[in-house]
Amino acid sequence: MSSASSQAQGHSESDGKVNLQLLPCGNIGIFDIGGKDAPSFLHRQLSQEIRNLQTGQGASTCFLNKEGRILLYFDLWKTAEGYQAILFESQKEQFFPLLDRVLFAEDVRITDKTSQKACWILFGEGVPAWFHRLTGGADCQPRSFHVMQAESSAMSLFVMDWLVVPSLLLVMDGETPQVDPFFESLSIEQADWEQFHALRVEKGTPWPEFEVDETMIPYECGLENAISVTKGCYVGQEIISRIHHLGKPPRMLRGLLIEGHDIPARHQPVQDSKGTEVGKILSACWSERLQSVIATSSIRAKACQPGATLAVAGKTAQVAVFPF
């Protein structure tokens, strides 16, 4: 554990003017997973190869049903004591019941730490410089985490790859801990979820309750990085392996650049040139960077070629790959 205060001393307001935005988030679930059987238990249940994770590393993974559909999608981190799972939205309510029902005689302990933690998302182009300075020179490498100390508070810094700009998940113990000592005199802007999701859509990151639900398989919603095609047996593997080796899923997650300024509603139909419905809108927003309406969409495989012209509510929509 490193000291943040010693790293932050001596930096003035002038050299602290960096692009940083801070978003408090109360919709995160955090669970500790320990016990001597935890590695083998998680290996059998999850779609990702997690046994090779080193302390301080993380990976996205899924918990699937036997049809290969997504029951849970979350980030799993290797800690010194075991593992830590970080989930968003309603998935945090489902995590313990779903894993507990497949837990029998194994020595595995799942502990809900959500009420004992406070979380923020820090994002912006200034994140790598702030992280480098705070940690005393560590690289801001995605899917890694560090623990820092400032005065009497400890903060875990999880380097995420959710957004089109660098981002961190900051986690501290307690319901109302003080985050200010970690920023010293830096100028931090308060962000909102609209800003966060616009940058997420630009990156094309699937999100629970938007791009990810229990009707989908990982290949349909852009979660190729959450599955391993080389590991041994896990629930749903047969379906995943068949799709990987034999062809594309029926639908794929794609971006859309949509003309005009109107933001289409979620599940708004996407149509081809003949007026046939070939997909639906999942997330949509205005992108300041692109000066365009953009969206994530679930589109039939035959209609989702990059550059293809489709339509949403009578407006031209061009298929794009991520990130925009």
Unreliable runs, pLDDT <50, ≥5 residues? 1-17
The first-level CATH class name of the largest domain: Alpha Beta
Number of strands: 18
CATH architecture of the largest domain: 2-Layer Sandwich
The CATH homologous superfamily of the largest domain is called Probable tRNA modification gtpase trme, domain 1
Characterize the main sheet. 7 strands, mixed
Order of helices and strands: EHEEHEEEHEEHEEEEHHEEEEEE
Q: Give the neighbour order of strands across the main sheet.
A: 1-9-10-11-8-2-12
Structure annotation, total helices:
6
Q: Domains counted in the coordinates: how many?
A: 2
Task: Enter the CATH topology name of the largest domain.
Answer: Gyrase A, domain 2
- Gyration radius, rounded: 21 Å
Mean pLDDT: 90
Structural class: alpha+beta
Helix content, binned percent: 10-25%
Structural shape? globular
Beginning-to-end CA distance, first to last residue: 37 Å
Strand content: 25-35%
Name the descriptors.
324 residues; alpha+beta; Gyrase A, domain 2; Elongation Factor Tu (Ef-tu), domain 3; seven-stranded mixed beta sheet; six-stranded antiparallel beta barrel; 6 helices; 18 strands; 34% strand; disordered N terminus
Describe the structure.
The chain is α+β, with helices and mostly antiparallel strands. The two termini are 37 Å apart. Strands 1-9-10-11-8-2-12 form a seven-stranded mixed sheet. The longest helix is centred in the middle third of the chain and has 11 residues, at 193-203. The radius of gyration is 21 Å and the shape is globular. The protein has helices at residues 4-8, 38-45, 91-100, 127-134, 193-203, 237-246, and strands spanning 2-3, 21-24, 28-34, 58-64, 70-78, 83-88, 109-112, 117-123, 145-150, 153-160, 167-173, 189-190, 251-258, 269-271, 277-287, 292-300, 309-312, 315-320. Residues 1-17 have low confidence and may be disordered. The protein has six helices and 18 strands. The chain has two domains: 1-174 and 183-249, Gyrase A, domain 2 (2-Layer Sandwich), CATH 3.30.1360.120; 251-324, Beta Barrel (Elongation Factor Tu (Ef-tu), domain 3), CATH 2.40.30.110.
